[in-house]
Amino acid sequence: MQNGVIYGIDIAKGSSRAQEAPRYAVAVLEKGEVVHHTMLRRHKILRMIQRDRPVYIAVDNIYELAADKRNLIRFLEKLPQNTKLVQVTGGIHQRPLTRLAREHNFTFNQFNPNEEAEACAVLASLGVGCEVSLFEDLTKIKVSRARSLGRGGWSQNRYRRKVHGAVRQKSREIEDILRKFSRETGFEYTSKITEGFGGYVRAEYTVRARRDRVPVKPSSTADVQVTVKSVERDKIKYLPLKKKGRKYTIVGIDPGTTVGMAILSLEGELLFLQSIRGISHDEVVKLIADYGKPAVVATDVFPTPAAVEKIRRSFNAVIGTPGGEIRAEEKIALARPFGYSNDHERDALAAALTTYKNYKNVFSRVEKKTPAHLDIDKVKFHVIHGASIEDAIEKITPSPVVRKESKPEPESEEETALNDLVRKLRDEVNQKNSQIKQLKDYVAELKYESNQKERTIENLEMRIRKIRSESYQKVRKDKEIVIRDREIERLKRDIKKVRKSLKRQRKRAKRIKQIHKKEIRGEGLSVKIIASFAKEAIQHTKDTYGIREGDLVYLEDPSGGGPVTASILADSGVRAVLISEEMPHAALEYFYDSDIPVIRGLKLQRVDDLATIDPEALDKAIFEWEEKARERRKEKDHEQFQSILDEYRSERRRGLV
Predict the structure, then answer these.
(1) For residues 582 and 597, what is the distance between their CA atoms, to the nearest angstrom?
(2) What are the tens digits of pLDDT across the range 386-424?
(3) Distance between CA atoms of residues 19 and 67, nearest Å
(4) 439 φ, ψ to 5°?
(5) Residues 80, 451, 48: CA angle, nearest 5 degrees
(6) Beta bridge partners of 613
(7) 3.90.320, 3.30.420, 3.10.20, 1.20.1250: which CATH number matches 6-128?
(8) What is the pTM of this model?
(9) Strand 258-265 versus strand 270-277 pairing type
(10) For residue 321, how many other CB atoms are within 10 A of its CB?
């Protein structure tokens, strides 16, 4: 059962789509006890949420709180950072609330909003339902001026320099915080700076993390304001509270230029084993996450390398180290039953298996002590993180809401009748007290609404007096004239830009026609230009011009790519890749292995993202590349044979064969 405060909410009167604001029934669940509140408006519920800061706000339908997605986003923005909105009936395909209650061994009156709100809170505490996610795992931070600079006078430049300098200073402070946050957690960020006179006009940062994890808060001073916002999703996403099918794993890492990775389940089953050359940190993290949640990230050396520690922090896992050096013979003996292709895979597999052996006895005790209806892997996960077996079992054992009932002792008939009368009177008093409390709340709500309406009336009367004044009319007229003059100037500038753009497009069309004529006459072959050796640039060219089998492509900037980006071009079936400077060795190796020519130094006749090349020069260059490729394959086969022979001789000397 989830600890902490949980709010269950159900609509009691009205509708979120009605003109009149609806009223709600709220059940507050804390430490197994439930407190009911009735006929509350939404603004009062928000004040209670800010005070109690519940873990979950549980409802059976999210559109009882808001009429549409836009209003729902406004509601979520007013919640504390760690409070989650939960729809207990599920995501897109919902299940009846009464059926969910029966499945969890309790019933309620579906026509009573208080009991329905309590049922929502209890189900959320048992992990039933889906979290409603309207924001991406991205956070936008904007540092800008807190006021308009205006037209100014003699001191305008000094004032502008002061404000822009304050924006620059605050931006650098925030960037230092983000840089430290990125080193500690592995989350990346990007920045966009707009410079101005004496400093920055604004600075925008995009952090690839949820807002509650970013250590930057909104703030405002006389000159600078900082806004922090989450990025909205296009569609509502429902995230199950209980994730199914995601295993806990033990990951072995051998860092370096070629990264070896081995992933074991907590039962010792090998799920993944591979070594990849030139793979980035983000790609390693994504690949590991595809196979489950790492409980331990292990290495075969001591002390722990920085690259392994960075991967461990990305998952908040426990580090696994041997405490000393593992001999090569021990690594070979551990990894031989599973098989491996190279030393990187062997070292990663040895690290994972050594860690599994260290925990094997503990896992056996966990399996013996854990009840059959509980998730054994979750118990093992908590034990790995330092909990005792009993504490781990208690953490994942659901405990139902307990209502204490006292059993009366046998009484005489007179005492029974008297007690019944007292009980009846007490129930009536409690009912009256409840009605009085509701009426007091209702009166308070009416007074609040009355005060709000009086303020609105006063504001409207002041506005009417202002509108009627002649000076206001004159000012408004002058302002409209200025706005229209600015708009006319803007439209003139736009027309000038459009004319320039039209002229450029005509020249471009003329060049493209020349290229097509050459292709038709057989004097040139078309080449498609890719701006950089990155996934986004390749995808942009695919979407704009298409990359089909047999096409020629030219990489303007071949640096920065790796085997993953090279595989995208190889899978597209391109005929050849043209470059003007050196390409990373890992990507070049991949193209060699895929038998795709990589040609450097050929002259192109280019127009924007299209170009042509002399067919004879291309054929000659491809022929020369194929000759080099054949020589390289011979050398590689010889080196591989020599490596196998050396390893065999080494094992024979050690008596392993």
Answers:
(1) 14
(2) 888 888 888 877 654 443 333 334 445 666 677 677 777
(3) 11
(4) -65, -40
(5) 20
(6) 525
(7) 3.30.420
(8) 0.39
(9) antiparallel
(10) 16
Name the nearest CA neighbour of 348 among 411, 417, 443, 279.
Answer: 279
CA–CA separation, 271 vs 248, rounded Å? 11
Report the Cα 294 to chain-centroid distance in Å.
Answer: 18
DSSP-assigned beta bridge partners for residue 84? 56
588 with 561: CB under 8 angstroms? no
Backbone angles phi, psi at 107, to 5 degrees: -130, 165
- Could you tell me the two tokens for 325? 């050096």
Strands in 119-188 per DSSP E: 130-145
| CB-CB contact of 253 with 307 (8 Å) | yes
β-bridge pairing 248-254 and 293-298: parallel
d(CA 83, CA 99): 26
| Per-residue pLDDT tens digits for 622-646 | 888 888 888 888 887 787 888 888 8
CA distance between the termini of the chain: 56
132 CB neighbour count, 10 Å cutoff: 20
Rounded to 5°, the CA angle 295-298-299 comes to: 170
The two tokens of residue 509 are 């069309």
Site of tokens 């007229």: 477
Query: Which class is domain 137-149+157-234?
Result: alpha beta
Contact 75, 16 (CB under 8 A): no
Helical (H) or strand (E) element with 374: none
Pairing mode, strands 130-145 and 189-196: unpaired
**Cα gap 452→455, rounded to integer Å:** 5
Helices and strands (H and E) in the chain: how many: 17, 21
Task: Please report which helix (H) or strand (E) contains residue 602, including its range.
Answer: none
Of residues 318 and 247, more confidence is placed in 318
The three-state secondary structure class of 442 is helix
Rounding to the nearest 10 degrees, give the CA dihedral for residues 102, 106, 110, 113: -140
CATH class of 248-383: alpha beta
- Please report the beta strands in 566-644, taking only residues with DSSP state E, as ranges in sequence order: 576-579, 598-600, 605-607, 610-613
Backbone phi, psi, residue 344, to 5°: -65, -45
**How many CB atoms are closer than 10 A to CB 441?**
17
